[in-house]
Amino acid sequence: DTAVSQTPKYLVTQMGNDKSIKCEQNLGHDTMYWYKQDSKKFLKIMFSYNNKELIINETVPNRFSPKSPDKAHLNLHINSLELGDSAVYFCASSQDGASVSSYNEQFFGPGTRLTVL
Amino acid sequence: QKEVEQNSGPLSVPEGAIASLNCTYSDRGSQSFFWYRQYSGKSPELIMSIYSNGDKEDGRFTAQLNKASQYVSLLIRDSQPSDSATYLCAVSSGGYNKLIFGAGTRLAVHP
Predict the structure, then answer these.
(1) d(CA B63, CA B50)
(2) Which of A31, A72, B74, B92 has the smallest set of CB atoms within 10 Å of its CB?
(3) Which of A56, A90, A100 sits opposite B98 (nearest CB)?
(4) For B80-105, how does the pLDDT look when each residue is reduced to its tens digit (9 = 90+)?
């Protein structure tokens, strides 16, 4: 299946721990994104990479560090987890990140529900 | 001021009716507009994209864009109970395709 996939689906951890979420897309897209959806269901962009280069870096605590080893993968590492980090994290991808056309349509992965205790 | 605004709903419509979902945005430079559907506990699913003024139809869905009024809407014809979900309006402006999402409108289609 062609898709955006994420692991793990659920992540439950203690405050202060470090955790990573992985994302892979086999759509051949150049651009990948991380979004956070909080308890009020508000979806907000965190980061975007285009062909392994960071192009969007929103006001996110520097405890969050994205890494893109290649254009098909975008991982998110979170240090010193806090209660407020509990949310659903979605990865997305688009064919490119700049055109005003269907090439910029973003397709979402299934999400990772992070719970910090 | 919110950048993308939607009525949170719930919008309740009977089966077979037309559901009309509305969205306004604040950035006049916005160029790409999207509607996503999100079922509870699932990820956002792209329904429609629209880039120029006017209507765009795809099956039972019609997206309408009016850049002068900074307004985008989604019409769902012949609404079905399976259309019950939260509909997210998203707007992209500037370079790098940064999507700004509205808070979503919850649609309930009752038999």
Answers:
(1) 7
(2) A72
(3) A56
(4) 999 999 999 999 976 778 899 999 99
* Region of poorest pLDDT, from A89-93, A101-105, B102-106: A101-105
Which stretches of chain A are DSSP H helices? Answer: none
Residue A7 is given by DSSP the state E
Beta bridge partners of A35: A45, A90
Question: Would you call B51 exposed, middle or buried from its count of C-beta atoms within 10 A (0-12, 13-18, 19+)?
Answer: middle
Mean pLDDT over A13-23 rounds to 97
Chain B hits for A48, CB-CB cut-off 8 Å, are 96-98
Q: Chain A partners of B101 at a C-beta cutoff of 8 Å?
A: 42-44
Return d(Cα B24, Cα B6) in angstroms, integer: 7
Residue B74 CA to residue B36 CA, distance in Å, equals: 10
User: Is A108 an interface residue toward B (CB < 8 Å)?
Assistant: yes
Count CB atoms within 10 A of the CB of residue B11. Answer: 17
pLDDT at B97: 82
Give me the long-range contacts of B62-67 (CB less than 8 A, separation at least 24): B63/B33, B63/B35, B65/B33, B67/B28, B67/B30
pLDDT tens across B15-58, in order? Answer: 999 999 999 999 998 999 999 999 999 999 999 999 999 999 99
Please indicate if any CB of chain A lies within 8 Å of the CB of B99. yes
- Determine the average pLDDT of the residues in A102-116: 94
**pLDDT > 60? residue B1:** no
CA distance to A82, B13, B67, B97, per residue, from A95 (Å): 33, 36, 25, 11
Tokens 């240090």, residue?
A79
